[in-house]
Fold each of these.
Amino acid sequence: MNTFKKVMVAMDLTKTDEWLVKYAGFLLDKTGADKVYCTHIEPDFEVPPEMKEKYGQEFEMESLDEKMRHRMEEIVKHHMTTNAQVDIEYEVLEGSPFEKLVHWAKVKGVDLLIAGKKKVSEGSGIVAKKVARQTESSVLFVPHGAEAKITKILVPIDFSEYAAKALKNAIELAEAANGAKVIAMNVFDIPTVNYYYIGQNYGQFTALILENAQNAYDIFVEKYNIDKTKVEAVFEENIYLSPAKHINEYARKHNIDLIVMGAKGHSAMEVFFYGSVTESLLTYNEDVPLLVIR
């Protein structure tokens, strides 16, 4: 798999970094990356005067950014295990974490940005959505405590070209992960029509919608040249009235290790449509790594 050659790992120097770099190391073995930027963005380097006065000698001995870089190196040394031959570069930057991260990922031309995702209650939900929306590269969100393994990959599909791209990436990743299972899931809605007018009950009408979804899947895999033998297709009625919640519940109940979704482009209209399901899933999902493909 050569999709992600340049990877950026966004570190925040909290306990989440230990899980993040461990998962990143695991993924590097699967993706064929050759360059990794471990990046930390500090909102403000300015040291309060009282701290300078009290700890002045320590600050003179070693600058704050050097201390942070050393801390990053220690975290990677102790928690990242990979057989990949990669060049790792450590960067400490100053500025708005979100804006700087998006800008720096673009400057470096990274193919994949890996970021930790804390629980929404810890304030990461909004930031995760903004990063997913604005970053031009693919983005992988790794929840705190996520296990570094890939045995089941879930790919929500809507039969679009973006879903096809996500599914192809998932198949490649599954093959690199020694034959992980790939599940393509379509969540379908039952139209709010009076099905009695067409001489059917609810069960019969649902079966008709399901058949249409299955036919659409057959057309989808043929159109985008996807090998059906490498994918298990599932079709789920949107009983939660929210595709994102349904995806999250399915992932939780079926022990999914990774969710892969396709993102649309960057025009105002594309971003509007992109945000509805993927961004909602970033709110619901607190346990499973989520890879957004561009």
Amino acid sequence: MADSPDIIGSLADLSAAYSAILCDVWGVVHNGERHFPAAALALATAREAKIPVVLITNSPRRSADVVAQMNAIGVPSAAYDRIVTSGDVTRDLIIEGPRKIFHIGADRDFTLYDGLDVELVEEFEASGVVCTGLFDDEVEKPEDYADLLRRLRARNLPFICANPDIVVERGERMIWCAGALARDYAQLGGRTLIAGKPYAPVYDVAMKEIADLLGRAVERSDVLAIGDGMMTDIKGAADNGFDVLYVSGGIHARDYGDPLRPDPARLIAFLERHGYRPVAIIPRLQ
């Protein structure tokens, strides 16, 4: 790749050129079990320089639930101004969809439906499906859902995916997400509806939050996105008009060697393979 992106050592090397930051959460700010202090400090430093930080996550939960989770693992509130979740924007899809819903996912995600005029029903009664993840993501795999997805597809039920991620790292473990089931349902010819990254609705809401924080609208070219997921964060930034800082030590780190010292040739080949060009690369946000 000609004129390949620089590998930088600090967010401060870039942040002054932008009016605001949109930052991914899982894999950048924390790994589901512990937070990354250097990332939190880098974001807090940007905020001290009057650059607002909006966290943008594919979590299927509502923003208040994600804040509670981050508090529990020590993410300091000084690291961000606002948070927008896939769960938040998915509620609009649920409102527009069928009233009788079959829920696929953990019971902890039921707050997604709070205040909505929907009824959670058994599979055979449902007019639509909402998937927040696997029922037990510590032990199950997407192939365990093959028969269920075929039955749902046979009835042509719309499938709302509240978390477009395929996998995330929880600590040192790889955990399958709702996006894997949505992928498999689409491969069966089923209709999927998704509002999180890389799709526009979650970015539209995030831009409204930025405008509110700044007291004025800004161009997307004035906003720096940060993320580690190629098909969510990086594709989403590219498709929606944002410059993006790629955190190479996240979900794809195994593709190019040591997470903190990636092999430059393998890293550039990886980016070429996916066809995206971040403005810069940083092994871990700091």
